[in-house]
Design a protein that fits this description.
Elements: H1 4-21, H2 26-37, H3 42-50, H4 55-78, H5 112-126, E1 130-131, E2 137-139, H6 140-143, E3 163-165, E4 169-171, H7 176-185, E5 190-199, E6 211-221, H8 226-241, E7 247-251, E8 257-266, E9 283-292, H9 294-299, E10 308-315, H10 316-324
Parallel strand pairs: 1-5
Antiparallel strand pairs: 2-4, 3-4, 5-6, 6-10, 7-8, 8-9, 9-10
Length: 343
């Protein structure tokens, strides 16, 4: 082995010490440490040669390596450097001072969807509702038939639904299937909300994906009226967005409710003037709702002459987008910390 590297280390040592002594900032010091001790440095090369050196060579080379490393450490420890803006003296970038408090490692946080679900759950629990869950792989009976969806309804076409075993088993297309299960098994009166994932054959864009979250609610009792539904939902959106939020109800058809309505809130991105998020309408539909259809009550074993109820369902992801100012639903599911907008 050529021991010229020992001389190179000795020659480089004075240069390295001079550079580190003259360092002005922490970033400059860190760069110098990497330059003289990193994987591309002469010190690293010498350490690699040490493994294959003869016994008499190891002593000479080892002593040179130790002398060089000691000089670098001493220069870094004794240097006075600041931050890039010239303030705050920092400690030695090579050696940690065990007397200093530890640095808290960065940690994650709950997903925005989870935080919104928990917030909404707190509201409806306060209103006397229970939170229900149900299977994501559902039967045709609970997903369609008990919801007054006849076999020729468009929602049952294969273009919209992921069937596992056609036509009886599928990935649920809405969390209303949990509501029919509850109405078929639970005693009345009944107040439930159902957050969960649903699946539809959708093309991915800024407002739609094939897997998304829904949040549905159901109340069945004696003497329930449409005014109860509107009062509950208006109070709900004001809980989420404040007393200044503007809402509107529009007549809309859903097979499982009669009468049915769509509830809109004014777009918070454009203030109602129109933008790409609200499709230049000024309003964003946040949920569908209505009075539970008598056919649905009958299918679940409930007498519609004695009981009535209301139901509502919303695309939860759109509420999350409005809450956190997110303009693309795909940001909720791409698993990346940073997202590059695409045309």
């Amino acid at each position: 082995m050529d021991l010229d590297i020992v001389q190179k280390l000795q020659d480089l040592q004075s240069q390295a010490v001079a550079h580190m002594t003259a360092a002005k900032t922490k970033n400059e010091m860190v760069a110098l440490v990497a330059q003289y001790t990193g994987k591309n440095s002469l010190l690293f090369e010498a350490g690699a040669l040490l493994k294959t050196a003869l016994p008499e060579q190891k002593r000479v080379l080892g002593q040179a390596i130790n002398t060089f490393r000691t000089a670098i450490n001493a220069a870094a420890e004794n240097a006075t450097v600041g931050t890039d803006d010239g303030t705050n003296i920092v400690r030695d970038p090579i050696r940690d001072d065990s007397t200093l408090p530890g640095e808290r490692p960065p940690i994650g946080h709950l997903h925005p969807t989870t935080m919104v679900i928990r917030k909404i759950n707190s509201f409806f629990r306060y209103m006397g509702y229970s939170v229900y869950e149900g299977p994501e792989i559902e039967s045709n009976e609970f997903n369609f038939e008990k919801l007054n969806l006849p076999k020729d309804h468009p929602a049952r076409e294969l273009a919209d639904t992921f069937y596992i075993r056609d036509p009886e088993v599928l990935l649920r297309t809405h969390t209303s299937s949990v509501e029919t299960r509850a109405m078929s098994t639970e005693s009345l009166p009944l107040r439930i909300v159902v957050p969960g994932k649903v699946y539809r054959n959708e093309n991915s864009n800024t407002t739609n994906t094939s897997m998304f979250h829904q949040y549905e609610g159901l109340l069945v009792d004696k003497g329930v009226r449409m005014s109860d539904l509107k009062g509950t939902l208006n109070r709900f959106v004001r809980f989420l967005y404040g007393d200044d939020v503007k809402t509107r109800f529009r007549c809309k058809y859903y097979p499982q409710v009669e009468p049915g309505a769509g509830m809109d809130i004014q777009c918070s991105f454009c203030g109602g003037t129109g933008c790409s998020v609200c499709k230049y309408r000024g309003w964003i539909e946040v949920l569908g709702c209505g009075m539970v259809h008598p056919n649905v009550l009958n299918a679940c074993g409930i007498d519609p002459t004695e009981y009535s109820g209301f139901a509502f369902g919303m695309g939860l992801d759109r509420l999350v987008m409005l809450t956190y100012g997110i303009n693309d639903i795909r940001k909720l599911y791409n698993g990346e910390l940073f997202y590059e907008d695409t045309v």
